[in-house]
Amino acid sequence: MSVLTPLFDEHRLILRVTDAFERYLKQLPTESDEVRQDLHRFVTFFREFVDLSHHEKEETVLMPAMVKAGCDWESEDFEHLRKDHNQERYLMRVIRQAASQRGLWTGEDLRHLKSVGQELVDFMRAHVDLENRKIYPVAMELLQGERGAMVTEAFEDFERVRRSHGYDGFLSELAEELVRDYSGESAP
Ligand SMILES: [Fe+2]
Ligand SMILES: [Fe+2]
Description:
Elements lengths: L4 H22 L6 H36 L7 H25 L6 H36 L2 H20 L5 H14 L5
């Protein structure tokens, strides 16, 4: 098991929920309470798992550890990564607004939601691919031995704090439910 195994696992989960979200968007015919509720469920996952947990670990643990091991914080790849995370936050803000909108969605609202949602889907796949191909392999090379152990410990501390804030298993369960509801897969 590598120091990056937990993050690779999270990428796989993120991609499965992203596939489910794409299916949700394709099935978005009209407004209904259930459709709106399910958008809130996706928003919760993308915001609280992808942004506040996964990206946060990358930005506060992984990237600083890589810099300590010799990577350049200002490098093109890191700059790209930070820009991507901000772009994801922007797209999520737009989708959150749609989920929280007062009153019924109009045809135009639905079209807008579909288009921004698909942007998020495409973006998420490209972002995960970039990290899997370019960033994580460098991290695995650099973060071995003592350095790797420190990063693993930092990830564990991060999860401990998250659990103490009530996130114990809830988001993974939500992810599996969304995948089951929108991908025809059954929960493990
Ligand atoms: Fe990322
Ligand atoms: Fe990532």
